[in-house]
Amino acid sequence: MEITYKDSKDIKPEDISRVFMTSGIKRPYQDLDRLERMLQNSDIVITAWQDEKMIGIARALTDYSYCCYLSDLAVDLDYQKRGIGQKLINMVREKIGEESSLVLLSAPGAVNYYPKVGFAHNDRAFVIARAK
Q1: 4-117 falls under which CATH superfamily?
Q2: pTM score above 0.90
């Protein structure tokens, strides 16, 4: 199985929807208009593909000089535990360079994953939750 990676926003909201739905991540996968806005307003979008099927995505917002927020990291459950998430993270890190920190808010089910791929736990995060 050869996985290819693309650094492009030239993807369909339907592809993102399918990955969000099959990955277990909680995202508004049924709202294609919102997914399109999420895509277009991102600074970095890197995707993983097997043939013509998107199986993973990393989506980030950054200033490329100090901080990068990894807003989404999702891999289809059928393809997890194969290093795809780690590869997506590494590709984001390459794009942002050594001056930028990579930060994220973990989904509850992924809390134990992130320390395994190089993230340090930090209990100083604060959130004002979205209304919808």
Answers
A1: Gcn5-related N-acetyltransferase (GNAT) (3.40.630.30)
A2: yes
